[in-house]
Amino acid sequence: MTTSRSSTDKRSATSLPPREQVHAALATLLNGRQPGEQLPPEPQLAHQLGVSRATLRETMRSFQERGLIVRRHGVGTFVAPPPPVIETGLEELESLDTLARRTGLQTRMGEAVIEEREATPNEAFRLQVSPRTPVLAVARVMMTGALPGAMPVAFLVDVVPTAYLRQQDLGPGFCGSVLDLFIQREHPPLSHSRTDILAEAADEATAGKLHLQRGDVLLRLEAQLYACDGHVVDYSISQFVPGHFHFHVVRRVGNPKVRLPGR
Amino acid sequence: MTTSRSSTDKRSATSLPPREQVHAALATLLNGRQPGEQLPPEPQLAHQLGVSRATLRETMRSFQERGLIVRRHGVGTFVAPPPPVIETGLEELESLDTLARRTGLQTRMGEAVIEEREATPNEAFRLQVSPRTPVLAVARVMMTGALPGAMPVAFLVDVVPTAYLRQQDLGPGFCGSVLDLFIQREHPPLSHSRTDILAEAADEATAGKLHLQRGDVLLRLEAQLYACDGHVVDYSISQFVPGHFHFHVVRRVGNPKVRLPGR
DNA sequence: CAGTGGTCTAGACCACACG
DNA sequence: GTGTGGTCTAGACCACTGA
Description:
The structure is a homodimer.
Chain A: H1 5-8, H2 18-31, H3 42-49, H4 53-65, E1 69-72, E2 76-79, E3 92-93, H5 96-103, E4 107-118, H6 121-127, E5 134-144, E6 151-161, H7 178-185, E7 190-201, H8 204-209, E8 217-227, E9 232-240, E10 247-253
Antiparallel strand pairs in A: 1-2, 4-5, 5-6, 6-9, 7-8, 8-9
Chain A binds a DNA duplex through residues 1-6, 8-9, 17-19, 41-43, 51-55, 57-58, 60, 71-77.
């Protein structure tokens, strides 16, 4: 059973690699079925799609991780029940802008202060850089609703070392999201964000910006954005007026498997 | 290359399956190396461990997902840099009790009210059961510190249909965690929890229980615990006094890959 | 028992990084 | 070019579920 990719290869020069073919085919398959319906057995499905079972299973796994299918050992594979979680939660990093657009909320950037300065000690710590490293700080209020009655919903501050972002990189098209800018530029390659979740009372300054009283409740998300090389690219503080955005997270039940040693 | 598992099988009757052998071996390997160090190439490593490369890669993937190694296409596999995230975040579901123990915080259960009653309309909605379904409600204050000066840190309420949990199931050993009880019983099999994240001002009753003033800030986590069959097993509300517990979440940067069709 | 997903193998080629 | 990880194949056996 010597494998000869070139002789077995079903792709023409222009067609997609097996992985994406299978991905698309499986997606189509799912769209045509009702939740709870059973999918064909893996060997059969693999044959239908013209790939090996291993390749099919790779795609199956990704679908399972996203909660689109349920696989039951010894029973079969099924279209997942109507997802208990409709929108994605916090586990996928996306900008507030993107989130708002996705959920139909209309937002625009309000008052903004953009400046290059030295990092404060706390910022330097969070960014894991030397004290007084030059950074670009972008502070702005996000508003929602029509202009006369627009309401402030969040106060956002991003702090980025100027090595990653300069004031002039924020074109006139900048509408509030530093994250989207990084994603669009594709540089540096981003890995993940560590987001701390806090509740706090608004101080005088923040209350003013958000049209609240001092002491009113805010949800505060403090995030460090990591590049693939492990460097912190962005330290952001987001303060939300309760009621406009809704955050949640899906938590896996921990496997009581063997734990890794210390590290 | 006909595969004959029985003839190739290197396991004696008592040894572990390849997956776990590899898992252990890889863990050992990592523990003996410094962050940034390169691991042997996959084919060589697979041969050393006496497994196929596919099997090794399966383990590698799981290590990578946990952030223990970094794989770079065309370059090599490396011990991950000092993990930016030390403890796990919210993405793994664990009881407050377990979390406290893990982080060295000493907690004990304070005043508790345990009763069987009918679900309120909101509870029925969250539990996805008919209105007035009988439920077990467990409300208690969690305290920290030595007895004379013990401070309340959280107010927890779990609401569980009596089909899953009865008052008599909470033995005298019950010390505050309904989740741990479910995990220990292994029934029903749990899948995940959807946890909403909110900031709110303490109302009169809660403030009293937590020794706060009305209007003080609380972090509120509202969770629905799902069994593998999709049913909601537990609806819980956790209100935290800021400063004692620290919650965070790791957010993946979204893949700009092909999105699935609507669903 | 039959049928399903779960695991594993040995070998091959592809795509990328880097000197 | 050399060496790495990334993908893929065809086939086999194992482990579980449910009739």
